[in-house]
Predict the structure of 8-oxo-dGTP diphosphatase.
Amino acid sequence: MSPYDPSAYPSFAVTVDLVVLTVRRHSLCALTVRRGEPPFQGRWALPGGFVKADEDLAAAAARELVEETGLCVHDPAASEAQGNGAHLEQLATYGDPQRDPRMRVVSVAHLALAPDLPAPRAGGDANSARWSPVETFLGKDGDQGALAFDHSKILEDGVERARSKIEYSSLATAFCTPEFTVGELRRVYEAVWGVALDPRNFHRKVTGTPGFLVPTGGTTTRQGGRPAQLFRAGGATLLNPPMLRPEV
């Protein structure tokens, strides 16, 4: 007989919390939901929920993403006609014993990125949802105590992950539609970093890495002015050399 006795160990729950980021009206915005039930009833929080007994963490995060945004996770094998879906990656684990007043709860947070998303819908124990500029909750002008649980810290970590990874990876293209201009990609960097970038230097850097951007052969005038060349994300996942974030 096995000497292991499950009752000898305290039970605890596992949740997934989502830092869902998008660029709306040239601002980096996060999805937040107003809690409809205790604890922290009426407070804004990140979307998420408890992991089901038959789910692994990735499946739970993908399920919550669909429930909160209607988005499926990006499938690299999907055709362009099916759309890009959302980029989803594991962010960090949060396990302070006091983080949830109900019981011991460990949260595995995930970062989700997608192009300009539509008005959100509330689900689960939330009674409303909204997109908020991240500065609403973070930074010197934000209220870092405004989010329930430890979600301000989780949001801060998620925003910093996005800001740092676009320096050297292709993550910024996850904020773009399948076809985009260099100017539209530059505005993603500007929104995520909160700075203005020189258009010529930016164009040289993102087009200088082979395979980072691939011309589609088309043009667009949706930004006004002369027709601009359209690109899609290429197979290169790293920017070399990296595009370092300007000091603010």
Residues 151-165 form the longest helix (15 residues). Strands lie at 13-24, 27-35, 44-45, 48-50, 87-94, 105-113, 126-133, 213-220, 228-233.
